[in-house]
UniProtKB/TrEMBL annotation:
GO terms for molecular function: carboxy-lyase activity; hydrolase activity. This is Amidohydrolase. It comes from Mycobacterium asiaticum. It comes from the Bacteria. The lineage of its organism: Bacteria, Bacillati, Actinomycetota, Actinomycetes, Mycobacteriales. Coiled coil: none annotated. The keyword Hydrolase applies.
Length: 287
């Protein structure tokens, strides 16, 4: 599939590796179809950590994230320490960190950056907080100055949260126009609103996580009229999978990109070079 579009590898900006006790709880939540999932959601890659890393390598993934996220205070810094160790021990892992609205957040975000974090994760839905929380204002300022992107789950899918939706994100960007944000799941289901933010702000990107797959199309279909908008955002769309927490084969996530009909060059940018340029500082461009 990759060879057909002139690629031999992928950069996946949206994969989850977490401490075992945390991942076990995440899987248990999916197993009981918790309210934030919205439906039955079998985990396709419920494997040991080393097996999951090897599976990504087998899929041709050259680099991937270890997105962690806290659901309560006094958790983020511990997750950051784990993620730093995981990245140091895992060659292809892009050093990932996270934060939560709490007084200590600016300091531990600075420490994570000093220790080499290349991308952060913010989960508005699970964390139950607003991106506009005053305690996050200095965090956004630090990330804007450092020009380090944050993968932010702020869309109201698969189920809405109290603070999800494009408006709070737009307010943050108004205050921090140079901030780099990667909109997880392309903002599902508020696709059009988040696409508009990507056009408006230079630092806003969209990740394709679960979008266009048969599983998602059945519940939150991508508007057909917006496909053309993605052609104009060829340099700002990044491939994400949500591995291992997906209910279908990994290859289907890749196929969902290549079957859009936007051309081989667009696919090469989405599946590799856009993320390589942003997170790996790989200046080779489209491959």
């Amino acid at each position: 599939m990759l060879a057909e579009i002139g690629l031999d590898s992928i950069v996946d900006v949206h994969t989850h590796f977490m401490p075992k006790q945390v991942m076990d709880k995440v899987w248990a939540y999916f197993d009981r179809a918790g309210p934030l999932t919205g439906r039955r959601w079998p985990i396709a890659y419920r494997l040991d950590e080393s097996q999951r890393v090897q599976r990504l390598r087998d899929f041709g993934v050259a680099a991937f994230t270890s997105l962690v996220y806290p659901h309560k205070p006094d958790m983020a810094e511990w997750l950051n320490a784990w993620a730093a160790e995981f990245a140091a021990a895992t060659t292809q892992c892009i050093h990932t960190a996270t934060f939560f609205p709490e007084p200590s957040a600016p300091a531990y975000v600075r420490r994570a950056i000093a220790h080499g974090a290349k991308v952060f994760k913010a989960h508005v839905q699970v964390g139950g907080y607003s991106p506009t929380d005053p305690q996050l204002e200095p965090v956004w300022a630090v990330l804007e100055e450092a020009q380090i992107p944050t993968v932010i789950h702020a869309g109201s899918g698969p189920a809405p949260g109290e603070f999800t939706g494009p408006s709070p994100v737009a307010e943050v960007l108004h205050r921090h126009p140079a901030l780099k944000l990667i909109i997880a799941h392309m903002g599902m289901p508020e696709y059009r609103e988040f696409i508009e933010l990507a056009y408006r702000y230079a630092g806003v990107y969209l990740d394709t996580t679960m979008v266009f797959t048969d599983f998602t199309e059945a519940m939150h279909p991508f508007p057909g009229g917006a496909i053309a908008d993605l052609a104009g955002l060829a340099d700002k769309v990044l491939f994400g999978s949500d591995f291992p927490n997906i209910p279908y084969p990994y290859q289907h996530a890749v196929e969902s990109i290549t079957r859009l009909g936007l051309g081989a060059q667009w696919c090469r940018k989405v599946l590799y070079s856009n993320a390589a340029d942003l997170l790996l500082h790989d200046t080779r461009g489209s491959r």
